[in-house]
Amino acid sequence: MRAQRPDGFRYSHPKGTFMARRKKIYEGKAKILYEGPEPGTIVQYFKDDATAFNAEKRDVIEGKGVLNNRLSEFFMTGLNSVGVPTHFIRRLNMREQLVRSCEIIPLEIIVRNYAAGSLSKRLGIEEGTQLPRPIVEYCFKDDALGDPLVTEEHIAAFGWATQQDMDDVLSLALRVNDFMSGVMLAVGIRLVDFKIEIGRVYDGDFQRLVIADEISPDSCRLWDIETGQKLDKDVFRRDLGSLTDAYSEVARRLGVLPKNSATVSKPTLIN
Predict the structure, then answer these.
(1) Could you say which of 3.40.50.620, 3.30.70.360, 3.30.470.20, 3.10.20.30 is the CATH number of the domain covering 104-224?
(2) What is the mean pLDDT of residues 74-101?
(3) Would you say 114 and 193 are in contact if contact means Cβ atoms under 8 Å apart?
């Protein structure tokens, strides 16, 4: 079955995956969450909105949501395949994916391999300096406060996560880093840093942690190994050119876009 979205993108619905629009649960800067077709599931819709500096800078970048949906599917599927659990179930269409509902730990987990962004500013380290080992940082998720940096002492004191949770969070973050670094290195891209969110899912009385939200160029710093060209949201933050071109280049290298495809505002994705 072929369908045409109002935004002009065409996609195929695999049998049984067509869904009527459901009740909206939450709308954020880059995604909208809807009730899923089954209990314990959520439909995650990727918007074309781009924001930076805590939403002080914003724009609509045509095709961005389509690319992030497909790239996040690629990374989440890869993580699942190597035994790193995620909330991802399957992609529904060009802008939506079905994910497992989970209780989000109110932290952004940041893994840094090279100095960049706020780390360079805080510590005066030249951007691009390789760190002696991956550094894991935690920020409290609160837009009104600017997602402030916090320590494990804060996390324990305010009950955001248990010590066992934090041990598991650290292990998951480093496993994601190992996987992502290898995948990006293979296509000539340096994984400078990234941020993830982690959620709790429950099977009866048993709780486990999973990678949630998304993994995409929105949440990673990606630099071409040879040229240093930025292929992530810093292109938008710093007015370095076309964000769609940058994300399309990442998708092409990973095989999500045909390598010989022309850069277009409405990317053609491989099903």
Answers:
(1) 3.30.470.20
(2) 97
(3) yes
